[in-house]
Amino acid sequence: MSACFTTLGEWSKTTATAAGIILIDQQDRLLMQLRDMNDRTAGPGLWSIFGGHVEAGETLSRAAVREFAEETGLRVSEDQLTLLARAVSAFGTGLYAYTLNMKIDPAEIRLGEGAGFAFLTRWQIETLPLMPAAGQILKHFFTLTDTRL
């Protein structure tokens, strides 16, 4: 666990585990995912970080890297990640979030899941409808970075 790692909310209420990545680009913007609009998707039409469920026998960081690759087409390594926080979703899923600083060209992204994506500043993100757990984690991230993203 990293020195800044924290638990947000009531962790004892988790029923499943997920892991995601907050990518910070060279302009200090965050890569965000617009969730699909269908009945199978948790939080349809809301914004979140890229990530998903941890499979049996999989480490948190491995799950984050796998989900990130599946959803964005971007390959990253576990050693590039810094564990930030965990929060519980409205559905009882415990979401672990990692940060990743990376120079990226948006044209490199191949959206494999979600209705869309965007590189957004803190101020843009604060105006969006967010998945609750991702919103808690991003608020924590903004407090730690104390920057005007």
Automatic annotation (TrEMBL):
Domain Nudix hydrolase stretches: 14-143
Keyword Acyltransferase attached: no
Pfam families reported in the protein's UniProt record: NUDIX
Origin: domain of life: Bacteria
UniProt keyword list: Hydrolase
UniProt cross-references to InterPro entries, sorted A to Z: Nudix_hydrolase, NUDIX_hydrolase-like_dom_sf, NUDIX_hydrolase_CS, NUDIX_hydrolase_dom
Family the UniProt entry places it in: Belongs to the Nudix hydrolase family.
Name of this protein: Nudix hydrolase domain-containing protein
Species assigned in the record: Neptunicoccus cionae
